[in-house]
Design goal:
Layout lengths: L4 H4 L5 H11 L4 E3 L7 E3 L15 E6 L5 H13 L3 E6 L6 H6 L7 E4 L2 E4 L1 H12 L8 H16 L2 H10 L5 H22 L13 H20 L11 H10 L3 H6 L3 H12 L14 H17 L1 H11 L12 H20 L18 H17 L8 H16 L3
Helix pairs in contact: 2-13, 2-15, 3-5, 3-9, 6-9, 7-8, 7-9, 8-10, 9-12, 13-15, 13-17, 14-15, 15-16, 15-17, 16-17
The structure holds glutathione (GSH).
């Protein structure tokens, strides 16, 4: 069997796809050849750094960009528009120099103008100290409340109670009811705090308090529907928390640093072995947002295709479809289906069906179809936001992968 060039040529080549994608999105990342992760985000404030000057911050964060505490720091750096460099730490195999350097051995840690600081809260406060109190209210009384609430976010037990409810599955129904009631009463406290000042944020302006809570509430809002059948979003008991989520969504920095719901869902299952009982939240992208995010997803896929193809060939199982040890057809079919996906991301429903079929009558070679199905299913679950692309782009990417996958058979 060989991969027909007539079929392959039905889709633009990678250079064309990349060029069109780039015309439709400003999103770019830096490539990190041979390293994990294979790309890194570019701080939105990098242009503020004079040439030949080093960024004032070096942030140590987790290589998969899952850590909610690292997200807090990244969120603040983006909000404050401070240029920074990132060094990624593999948490499954922390380097000795890192565990020697940071007393807690945890991420995040940061060199801030040469001073080592660790613990996300302390890093946030140090940034306020050195780069202006832009994330603390000006009014002295409110400023004091903000500082108190930042401390409280670490000591009020919210996180422990919330993650206990999320991760534990007690046999006894009463125990589960108690965990849920305890969690809801913590959310009631947050709801009450959100009602103390005008506007949608904790204080009368966006502040460190919002940053302390957002990575955790985001993960809970994404995971509780799937793993506990419990909804924060859309729950009439928490109108102010819902308004707060809506306000966060308007902030560009938040959209750069957050994870998408599916990344959160997949992580919980993989990392903590929790079994899903409910459905993921519906896609949280407006139709107008889809267009730019689809272009970003296409740009990421086209720009980083070599790494994606290498990963698929090595880890997805497609190799088992090779005939007589010849991987070339499988490789071409992987490449073809990825171009099909990029094309679909760019052109939407105008994109042709696999194999150039128009009415679905002629059937495609089964090995090519199977390779395509594996490729798309693998990548759909493999991509991870914000490690590989923004949350919005990841949402658009997965929706497109599902759509192309559904057209294969
Ligand atoms: N209180 C710390 C918590 C940091 C933390 O728990 N980091 C986790 C990642 S989410 C970590 O480094 N885990 C690695 C380990 O436990 O070895 C902070 O706010 O910075």
């Amino acid at each position: 069997m060989s991969f027909s060039s007539t079929i392959s040529n039905t889709i633009s080549n990678w250079e064309e796809l990349l060029e069109i994608a780039r015309q439709n999105t400003p999103a770019r990342r830096v490539k990190r050849p041979g390293q994990s992760p294979s790309t890194a985000p570019i701080p939105s404030s990098l242009h503020k750094l004079p040439p030949d000057k080093k960024a004032p911050i070096l942030l140590y964060r987790d290589s998969n960009s899952w850590c909610p505490f690292c997200e807090r720091v990244w969120f603040a750096l983006e909000e404050k528009e401070i240029p920074f460099e990132t060094e990624f730490i593999d948490l499954s195999n922390k380097p000795k120099w890192y565990t020697d350097l940071v007393p807690t051995t945890l991420v995040p840690a940061a060199y801030i103008e040469g001073k080592l600081v660790y613990e996300s809260k302390d890093i946030l406060l140090e940034l306020e100290e050195r780069f202006g109190e832009t994330l603390l209210p000006e009014n002295p009384e409110e400023n004091a409340v903000a500082r108190e609430w930042v401390e409280e976010a670490e000591t009020n037990g919210f996180r422990n109670i919330a993650y206990k409810f999320l991760r534990e599955t007690p046999e006894n129904a009463d125990e589960l009811t108690n965990l849920r009631a305890e969690f809801e009463s913590k959310l009631d406290e947050i709801e009450k705090s959100l009602g103390k000042y005008p506007g949608s944020y904790f204080l009368s302006t966006f502040s460190l308090v919002d940053i302390m809570y957002s990575p955790h509430l985001d993960r809970l809002a994404a995971n509780l529907p799937v793993y506990k059948g419990y909804h924060i979003k859309g729950n009439p008991r928490f109108p102010l928390i819902n308004a707060w989520f809506a306000a966060l969504k308007q902030r560009p920095a938040y959209n750069r640093v957050k994870s998408d719901n599916i990344t959160n869902n997949l992580l919980l299952r993989r990392r903590f072995g929790v079994e899903p009982i409910g459905n993921p939240l519906p896609l949280d992208l407006a139709e107008s947002e889809f267009i730019e995010y689809r272009a970003e997803a296409a740009e990421r896929l086209s720009d980083n295709r070599e790494v994606a193809i290498g990963d698929i060939l090595k880890n997805s199982g497609v190799q088992s479809l090779a005939v007589d040890g010849d991987i070339s057809t499988v490789k071409e079919a992987v490449d073809f289906h990825l171009r099909l996906l990029a094309d679909y991301l760019i052109n939407g429903n105008g994109a042709p069906l696999p194999g150039g079929r128009t009415g679905g009558k002629e059937s495609i070679d089964p090995i090519i179809a199977a390779t395509g199905a594996i490729t798309l299913a693998y990548l759909r679950n493999r991509i991870c936001a914000p490690r590989d692309m923004s949350a919005g782009a990841a949402t658009a990417f997965r929706a497109a992968a599902d759509k192309v996958l559904a057209s294969i058979y």
